[in-house]
TrEMBL record:
It comes from the Bacteria. Transmembrane segments: none annotated. This is PKD domain-containing protein. SMART domains: PKD (SM00089). Pfam families: PKD_4. CDD domains: PKD. InterPro entries: Ig-like_fold, PKD/Chitinase_dom, PKD_dom, PKD_dom_sf. Residues 68-141 form the PKD domain. It comes from Christiangramia crocea.
Amino acid sequence: MNSSLEAYLGKVHIYIDGKLSFETANNGKWFYNPGGKIPDSFQICLTGINDCSNQVTPIMVDDPMQLPNEEPFANFSKDQNGLEVIFTDTSRDEDGEIVAWEWSFNDGNTSYLQNPGHIFPNEGWYYVSLKVTDNRGGTATKGRHLLIEQLPDPEPVNLELTVRTVKRRGNTRAILSWTPSGTSESIEIYNNNEMSLSLNDGSQEINLGKGGGIASFKVCITETSYCSNEVIVEF
């Protein structure tokens, strides 16, 4: 046996056949095993104030499908990344299950997936709605206005590069140092315009070989236009 009341903070009193029988948390649900004779009536009252539900009489059926259907409750959450949004269904159905979903994105597109992803065509306000249907044909709809905006451009990075050379066993080695480091996972290192990737940890050592020559270096944040000054060394 269960009874529902719109959930408020605090506790409620449960009256069975007009007598105060239980006090329980007011979370919108209460379960009761009569263990014999079925009570004639139930009533729920908020504690501390004079606010009670109607008295209800339990209905006994052999098949739960004979009971009136409780409509589902529609709701959803979102994870937004610029124009792309991942929607997650958080709907519920107290006396069955939700079997169908219909999303409308207010841009001419719909989806029938439970948890769809969608890319909006432009920035702006969109009224996104979700209609759910339970296993007995009950429906509920939840709508929400969403502001869709492009991700802001990344903060500019002013890279400063210094290069020094050392001799080791006849080889010239260039030791590169740059600041700031750690602004990205990797960094592009250009040695005479030939690019290689490295961890953006602020330093890199490059073997220039034996003999002499000229080498130019610069570093750039991967896949951006943010680059350091160019450094030319003679060795």
